[in-house]
Write a structure and sequence with these properties.
By secondary structure, the protein is of the alpha/beta class. 39% of the residues lie in helices and 17% in strands. The longest helix has 17 residues. It binds 2'-O-acetyl adenosine-5-diphosphoribose (OAD).
Length: 249
């Protein structure tokens, strides 16, 4: 577990940075009640669910996949930002530039940012679950709040409407990825919070920051695929570590 000395040392290093990139994963939202993907209790412990995030499964079994996404959409609306999201939002105000590259499809960071008056841009590398898009023509309905489990059709082309998330087999949104990569290349510090760091190209973001010589901090109770690239690994839950860190800034 993390010591007070480690938190204080990390805070001192962060204080000397003007630009920060946050790379976030599902562990950040875990304490809000949103399950992570990997690990013992992760969504992927159900083999069937593990196939639902692939584009191939959407085209073969749209009913099953869209019903699962609709349940996740409903769940995301029910949950609230946790102490980790809120501490990050407050922290963001202390830097000249604060860019967020999140793999999470929920809107908990936005909600914390608006409540705590956070600074900087939040970019979703894997899309947003509340967004609705046509799988065939890419157009978006005027009202995205549609029940996907009823397999609604696109008003423009009659194609399948689906959530605006990135599925395995699809490219990342270009602007979100490229702008995050540019921010990482400029960042003096990088926070890597609640991610296994196993999914590429998203996981290139903290790697770019590390290569540039940024101070890289991981917040995660477990070792991740990115731990080796980090200067400090704060082992614990985001909801405990981030408020402690923020207090020292
Ligand atoms: P994972 O499920 O792969 O990893 C979650 C990470 O969060 C693990 O390293 C946990 O140790 C950590 N964790 C759990 N609880 C935590 C807490 N309270 N505080 C801090 N960390 C905690 O989730 P991601 O890394 O987000 O992509 O997964 C990346 C991508 O893989 C997702 O965006 C999704 C998935 O397949 C797509 O669907 C395209």
């Amino acid at each position: 577990m993390v010591s007070d000395t480690q938190i204080a040392r990390t805070a001192r290093r962060l204080q000397s940075a003007e630009s920060v990139v946050l790379f976030a994963g599902s562990g950040l939202s875990a304490e809000s009640g949103v399950p992570t993907f990997r690990g013992e209790d992760g969504l992927y412990s159900d083999e069937k669910v593990a196939t639902y995030t692939r584009v191939r499964t959407l085209t073969k079994q749209p009913g099953e996949v869209l019903t699962w996404y609709q349940k996740r959409r409903d769940m995301v609306r029910e949950v609230s930002p946790n102490e980790g999201h809120r501490a990050l939002a407050r922290m963001s105000r202390q830097f000249e530039a604060f860019d967020v590259a999140t793999q999470n499809v929920d809107n908990l960071l936005e909600r914390a940012w608006s409540r705590e008056n956070g600074r900087g841009v939040i970019r979703h590398l894997h899309g947003e679950i509340t967004d609705t898009v046509c799988h065939d023509c890419g157009s978006r309905p005027d009202n995205p709040d549609i029940d996907l489990s009823e397999l609604p059709k696109c008003g423009d082309c009659g194609g399948l409407l689906r959530p605006g998330v990135v599925l395995f087999g699809e490219p990342l949104p270009t602007e979100a990825f490229e702008s995050s990569r540019d921010a990482a290349a400029r960042a003096e510090a990088c926070l890597v919070v609640g991610t296994s760091g196993l999914v590429y190209p998203a996981a290139r973001i903290p790697e770019v920051a590390a290569r540039r010589g940024a101070f890289v901090v991981e917040v995660n109770p477990n070792v991740s695929g990115l731990s080796d690239r980090c200067d400090e690994c704060l082992r614990g839950e985001a909801g405990d570590i981030l408020p402690a860190l923020e207090e020292q800034l």
